Amino acid sequence: MKIKKPELKIPQYQPNKIEEKWQKIWERNAIYxxxxxxxxxxxxxxxxxPYPSAEGMHVGNMYAFTGADVYxxxxxxxxxxxxEPIGLDGFGIHSENYAIKVGRxxxxxxxxxxxxxxxQLHATGNGxxxxxxxxxxxxxxxxxxxxxxxxxxxxxxxxxxxAPVSFCPSCKTVLADEQVxxxxxTTTQKSQLDEExxxxxxxGTGVEKRELEQWFLKITNYANRLxxxxxxxxxSEKVKIAQRQWIGKxxxxxxxxxxxxxxxxxxxxxxxxxxxxxxxxxxKIEVFTTRHDTLYGATFLVLSPEHPIVASxxxxxxxxxxxxxxELKRYVDKAKKKTEQERIAEGKEKTGIFSGLxxxxxxxxxxxxxxxxxxVLMGYGTGAIMAVPGHDSRDYEFAKHYxxxxxxxxxxxxxxxxxxxxxxxxxxxxxxxxxxxxEVYTGEGTIVNSNKWNGxxxxxxxxxxxxxxxxxxxxxxxxxxHLRDWLISRQRYWGPPIPMIYCKRCKWQPVPEDxxxxxxxxxKNWKPTGTGKSPLASVESFVNATCxxxxxKAKRETDVSDTFLDSAWYFFRxxxxxxxxxAFDIKRVKKWLPVAIYxxxxxxxxxxxxxxxxxxxxxxxxxxxxxxxxxxxxxxxxLLIKEGAKMSKSKGNVVTxxxxxxxxxxxxxxxxxxxxxPFDGGGxxxxxxxxxMHRFIKRxxxxxxxxPISNFQFPISDERRKFMNKTIxxxxxxxxxxxxxxxxxxxxxxxxxxxxxxxTKNSELTKxxxxxxxxxxAPFAPHVTEELYHNVxxxxxxxSLANASPVSVGDSSSVSRQTQNNIKDISIHAQPWPxxxxxxxxxxxxxxxxxxxxxxxxTIIIQNSEFRIQNLIEKKAKQSERVKKYxxxxxxxxxxxxxxxxxxxxxx
RNA sequence: GGGCGAGUGGCGGAAUGGUAUACGCGGUAGUCUCAAAAACUACUGGUCGCAAGGCCAUGUGGGUUCGACUCCCACCUUGCCCACCA
Length: 908
Known about the structure:
Helix content is about 35%, strand content about 20%. It has 30 helices and 36 strands. Helix 24 (about 765-775) packs antiparallel against helix 25. The strands form 10 sheets. Strands 11, 12, 13, 14, 15, 16 and 20 form a 7-stranded mixed sheet that branches. A 5-stranded parallel sheet has the order 2-1-28-29-10. A hairpin with a 2-residue loop joins strand 33 and strand 34. It is an alpha+beta fold and about 900 residues long. The protein is globular. The structure holds one RNA strand of 86 nucleotides.
């Protein structure tokens, strides 16, 4: 066997040993736990706490957390007291469903998931403040979730109402509006129409409609504030747009249509208009419309089957033929029973029934029929619409199907310039459906067939229309929101019991504060019942209570609250989970909130983010806090995919970080995740990419270890110094903007450059270069940089070059007690971030691109002093042989010179 | 139906008015080795050419500009979000 040259022995890179060692040291010394009371430069770096799914952490979670952690570590090195807490959003249907699947009690399952998830989170090497961690299912936490509910109740923001709600037959609970999503139903037959169904966000089961009494939070009170405040927030426009769309403000008019009554006695009057009826406030139909400009085109009215007038009708308050009444009843019953799924599935084919009643269009006193149809939703506007079949495609379809009058009241304006023979749409003045096909026109134009409004333009003149209506007392301005109140009752076990007690005498009473938390009882039958009642309803010891007010016998609310309530305020609790006497410490909240940066998935654009904003606003109104918005800055990261496909359990392509961490170490995986694409755009995960990153880290390990690092600032070339400064600048700016992929690329370039320099010029790495490199990489690869910093850089500082020889790695014993004691100060993560010196970035020479007719032909190098001397540059450029070829014998028409960048000769 | 984005080598992606393809993956050749792996080194958009060098390429078609991946218009493809919302 050959004897190798007695070279410097490079220790083997053993990521797992290094990582475990430093994770222990960091945690033992709480280096990532700022003092929440005395910190001088607080920076709240929040990431969305995970649902601890029992399968464990997904690489997508790690992607999100790493991106947030890199930012936190960077800010810490910038001198901020960074608070980066973590916890588990472990209550809720998601966790409970998993417990059902594996047949374990949710409480036990939570322990298992918690252990596993925290183990994984530790292994990723994030700078979490472990002291502050919290779990939403911890009674110490949900005590305050219940307290929060009570505050809302006392403020009139929590109320009960019976309402048609979405019910998931699989999860056996009601769902909030936001938790019902639409899905394409893939039909087995080759049908042309793709059917859409409404399904549960959690399990994908089609939802049903049920009429139940439930707890709601009055988020609609905040609709306008939630909307207008968006302008103040440093959030990506995409998320703001999603919220705006969800809040869905519509400005329009509320218009009353009198109902023509035919009292039983009133047989003589064939039409039934009587003065008394017309003035009868109880018998009018109010509609909300954004197209009041088309009011003259309203040829019928449509009521939702749930509309109160429909109920009165069925109670025979109005006289209609009995046979028709039966028919009506059948239709309404059917519509009410129809699941949301069926209603939407019918999609294009609208059904309805004539009510037998007529109304009056208030602008022209025309008698128009009143129909009932389930395409009109009770939940939006007034539950009744004026139908304008000429200018609304849904009304048009309906009118066509039932042969109702279609009227055109908007004329297409002259087509703007597009065609020379400016077309003016020819429109039939009043067209009946039974004659020619009349088309529906939903665009803008000029009002016609509308008396005094004729000639007004829409949408420009809609303001005039509403003023006219208001003056005549026929309608008024109205704003309607798509946002509905937040339904928070869940007929499930695994959540915080809603802390309310019902007393027959005193009605609903909140549990007094000293009665909190209302503990979730340990029960055997915790599985959902499907009866519309929570499993807690059968636990007598739980249900029976005394009324807090009259001390009489009373019953507890047995539903639990929605998981989204748990997560709507957790960022307050993080600051104060050592405090038992209140939900949060007001001083600490003032110091740390609003959150400086919140990083998470865009899928929470409407749910979690909106709820959190609402709760924060409510707390502000209640005087607990001094700010209205919880998250000053929200940054949505992209979606991680695997080799071109979405990761999903069904595809079996879900990547777990564990195996990669075991094989390459967390540093490699972190760097790879941050490198594979722009952070806000997501990226594609390839195994070979991970290997490439591992190579980079190993090369760096070798680079730092293999050259004896000079303790002295021996002179390095200007170019080398410039490269270092350039890299510091690039990496700093990129991290600031969360452009992690290009920050890493810049470091790789620097490595490639240094490696070539050192090899070909037989030079040494300076301490400054090595130290700078490690610091720049530290946010991405916290362990290996810490290891090298201590074993190479600090040992150089401590003494002679001899000490620079590598020491054994592997266990914490290799780090001296001294080091461990003051690790809080001497950790690389506590060091100041490298600064670049602009003076080293200055170039004395500049490369100018020489173009002929916009094509690059050559480059010339000029001194900076020559920057402004165009003649000189022109002369130099013309001397180039490559340029000569293209300009010789040609007339130069024009010369464009852009200072310090390009010179372009334009020839004939 | 409405809203928002994206389209660049074999692949992930850089470059936001001035040298397109940085960085990484993959590939080819070489060094080391009995050999392989690893590691290291060089090359790597297409095309014509011995070479020098030329021409062509950022979804398609137009436009603006001395100059366009970048700005404008139309179209095609694709992703995400919302949707009987009156």
